[in-house]
Design goal:
With 102 residues, the protein is an alpha/beta fold. The protein is built from 3 helices and 5 strands; from the N terminus they run βββαβαβα. α1 crosses α2.
Length: 102
């Protein structure tokens, strides 16, 4: 009796975390197990958003994006991704005083 091979070509689900700034956004891509796939920096322009989306999709299916500052510097990115059907989760910026205590 032959055993069927185990499939190893399952689609990778990608989660992005984006730290937004006025001129550029810094992103890290993780797989579904939290393993780092890569990081990149793109301009905070519509062309930069498109580059970020294409970069992330090279790793697999983009599941969701956590955007810090989606009400300010990340607003354009959040709108861009949302218009393309990508789930965007707003990430609150940590309190600087609390970070310094760690």
């Amino acid at each position: 009796m032959d055993l069927l091979p185990i499939r190893t070509d399952e689609e990778t689900f990608v989660i992005l975390g984006v730290d937004t700034h006025a001129d550029a956004h810094v992103a890290v891509a993780l797989d579904g197990l939290g393993r780092r796939l890569g990081h990149t920096t793109v301009p905070s322009t519509e062309a930069g958003y498109a580059m970020l989306l294409a970069w992330a999709e090279d790793f697999g299916a983009l599941e969701r994006v956590g955007v810090e500052g989606s009400g300010s510097f990340g607003l354009g990115l959040a709108r861009f991704l949302g218009a393309r059907g990508v789930e965007v989760v707003e990430v609150s910026r940590p309190n600087r005083q609390h970070r310094r205590l760690l």
